């Protein structure tokens, strides 16, 4: 039987959802800080953001963080098990079970839309971006695994060898690839690119800040502002 027919993505598996947040306390603790810095750097480039829809919010790790910064937030995710954990961790949080391609919100009902690290599981990006454009008034900010980084290259090789099931259904994007998708999704002249950056460089370089080098940094932040 083909792999697609038997494969259950990790984010639908309750035992993985339960431990997902522990990664941020363990080996990804430093990466988490740098990723948040990068997302804040992008968000600060869009004026008038009060509300944020976080698409692919998972267990709500970044949703809670955005709330702590003073934004009004809603988390949306395809997985009921990830959302179950999100609701346990933040009882008053607002979360909806939804797919990025079909968001249950009215046109222009939110100030900004944001994705963190979930684009890897999204094959039809142009559709996703257009849907984000439909509901978001000011812009979109996204953080994703950079295709041009050593951890991502390792993951791509592992998948090719039939290992690392976490990424069997993943697609990895570089800066030019993501910019191309954005240009396909939006009408020229109706948006402008934000100042992008990368974070989480290999430890041997000792870089803990944001750097505008489109390779090696494993977390890539890109965004657009709507006109
Ligand atoms: C790597 S996790 C990221 C979770 C969270 N943003 C974080 O960084 O901790 C990817 C998330 O994307 C969600 N996801 C995958 N495909 C999706 C889709 N089509 N629409 C909405 N969410 C999706 C998964 O359920 C999962 O929770």
Describe the protein.
The protein is an alpha/beta fold and 227 residues long. It has helices at residues 3-6, 14-19, 22-25, 29-43, 61-68, 80-89, 125-135, 150-160, 175-185; strands at 51-55, 72-77, 95-97, 110-116, 136-145, 191-193, 197-199, 219-226. Strands 1, 2, 3, 4, 5, 6, 7 and 8 form an 8-stranded mixed beta sheet that branches. α5 (61-68) links the parallel β1 and β2. The longest helix is centred in the first third of the chain and has 15 residues, at 29-43. The radius of gyration is 17 Å and the shape is globular. The protein binds S-adenosylmethionine. S-adenosylmethionine binds at residues 11, 55-58, 61-62, 77-79, 82, 99-100, 116-118, 121-122.
SSE arrangement:
Layout (H helix, E strand, L loop, with lengths): L2 H4 L7 H6 L2 H4 L3 H15 L7 E5 L5 H8 L3 E6 L2 H10 L5 E3 L12 E7 L8 H11 E10 L4 H11 L14 H11 L5 E3 L3 E3 L19 E8 L1
Parallel strand pairs: 1-2, 1-4, 2-3, 4-5
Antiparallel strand pairs: 5-8, 6-8, 7-8
Bound molecules: S-adenosylmethionine (SAM).
GO biological process, one term: methylation
Pfam families: Methyltransf_11
GO molecular function: S-adenosylmethionine-dependent methyltransferase activity
